[in-house]
Q: What sequence folds into this?
């Protein structure tokens, strides 16, 4: 069984990593030559995905926030109600939720980067 | 100078009442009258059926905890005057089942305390034969404040995590776990860490700090929990060296 301290270490590291990665992500937008609002135009957004380091940052945000967010949800739900059935359901639902979000998000990033 | 105050007492007997109610009593309070004095006066002269628990009347036994004007306090350690109000409302401690009126059921609270193994675990201590553990003052200071705990349950009543997670040991038990973990005479470090490194263990503290606000004995349970957590994260591991037995030579 995974120790709670290991899970919480991951929670703190992914939380901190999310802050850094989201900051980098926002800096990406602010530093484009066309300016911030132009960077939100459809063509520019799609073009961003062609930039491998930009996509990589997006993927990392996806993974860290999904793990952190679903573990945060697990913590909240465990404190809300107790009972062995509930607790194992919460555990599996949160693992499944994180995996589903990561798979679906990765698919979106891949599709956007392959769009002509 | 005495002043007249209204004491509102929570009344509820789970065995036959469907609803709780407040009974109100007028009493004279002097500057030195404690809430416990006022309640015992009411019990002696106005309504002897009120249930409450007390013993030492001097903040030592930890049995008179109750919610007084919304804050968990010891009735014997709270003067009516210091509340600064003409109305004093007494309720049983939250987060505890009610036995009757102001008397709360401490069974689960004590069981959680017991599950922390609140005693020194060290096989050497069994064969002490005239020798003793020597502790430096710095080593004593690491656990001293936590050893002042009188198990009154005020911190447990104030804790927002205890309110929703009934498997959470609570600030009292976790602070006692740190008290024994960091005691240089104790050897059961790994066993202790395993007990609190649980889904409902030390990680479920979110540092609201209300436990430390209400403790009447100057214990800082929130600090104990953070130190325990830091220890689990490997941050202050070198702060403990297990003591050895010495024979003190006669001078
Ligand atoms: C997706 C929704 C999110 C949920 C449900 C969530 C949930 C939580 C919870 C419950 C905690 C407290 C853990 C504890 O004390 O036991 C926490 C801590 C933390 N979160 Fe999140 N979080 C989310 C998103 C984020 C994001 C986007 C960031 C950063 C940009 C972040 C950064 C942090 C950090 C640094 C901590 C550690 C601080 C602490 O323990 O109090 N979180 N999160
Ligand atoms: S830590 Fe303080 S408030 Fe909590 S049980 Fe001990 S003496 Fe009471
Ligand atoms: S009566 Fe003992 S602590 Fe109040």
A:
């Amino acid at each position: 069984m995974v120790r709670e301290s290991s899970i919480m270490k991951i929670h703190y590291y992914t939380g901190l990593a999310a802050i850094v990665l989201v900051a980098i992500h926002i800096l990406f937008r602010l530093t484009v030559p066309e300016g911030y609002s132009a960077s939100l135009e459809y063509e520019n957004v799609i073009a961003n995905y062609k930039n491998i380091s930009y996509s990589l940052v997006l993927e990392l945000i996806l993974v860290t926030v999904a793990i952190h967010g679903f573990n945060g949800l697990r913590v909240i739900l465990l404190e809300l109600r107790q009972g062995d059935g509930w607790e194992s359901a919460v555990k599996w639902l949160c693992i499944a939720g994180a995996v589903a979000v990561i798979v679906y998000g990765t698919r979106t990033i891949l599709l956007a980067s392959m769009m002509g | 100078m005495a002043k007249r105050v209204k004491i509102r007492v929570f009344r509820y007997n789970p065995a036959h009442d469907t609803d709780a109610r407040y009974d109100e009593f007028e009493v004279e309070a002097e500057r030195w009258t404690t809430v416990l004095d006022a309640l015992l006066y009411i019990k002696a002269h106005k309504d002897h059926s009120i249930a409450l628990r007390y013993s030492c009347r001097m903040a030592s036994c930890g049995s008179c905890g109750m919610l007084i004007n919304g804050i968990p306090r010891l009735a014997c350690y709270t003067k009516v005057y210091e509340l600064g109000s003409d109305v004093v409302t007494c309720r049983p401690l939250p987060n505890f089942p009610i036995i009757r009126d102001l008397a709360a059921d401490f069974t689960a609270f004590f069981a959680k305390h017991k599950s922390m193994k609140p005693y020194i675990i060290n096989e050497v201590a069994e064969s002490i034969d005239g020798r003793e553990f020597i502790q430096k003052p710095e080593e004593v200071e690491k656990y001293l404040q936590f050893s002042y705990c009188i198990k009154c349950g005020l911190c447990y009543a104030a804790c927002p995590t205890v309110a929703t997670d009934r498997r959470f040991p609570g600030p009292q038990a976790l602070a006692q776990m740190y008290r024994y973990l960091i005691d240089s005479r104790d050897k059961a470090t790994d066993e202790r860490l395993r007990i609190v490194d649980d889904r409902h263990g030390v990680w479920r503290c979110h540092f609201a700090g209300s436990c430390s606000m209400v403790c009447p004995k100057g214990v800082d349970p929130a600090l104990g929990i953070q130190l325990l957590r830091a220890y689990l994260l490997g941050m202050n591991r070198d702060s403990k060296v297990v003591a050895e037995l010495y024979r003190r030579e006669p001078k």
Remarks:
- Residues B 149-155, 171-172, 175, 214-215, 217, 219, 221 surround iron/sulfur cluster (ligand 2) (CB under 6 Å).
- Residues 84-114 of chain A form the longest helix (31 residues).
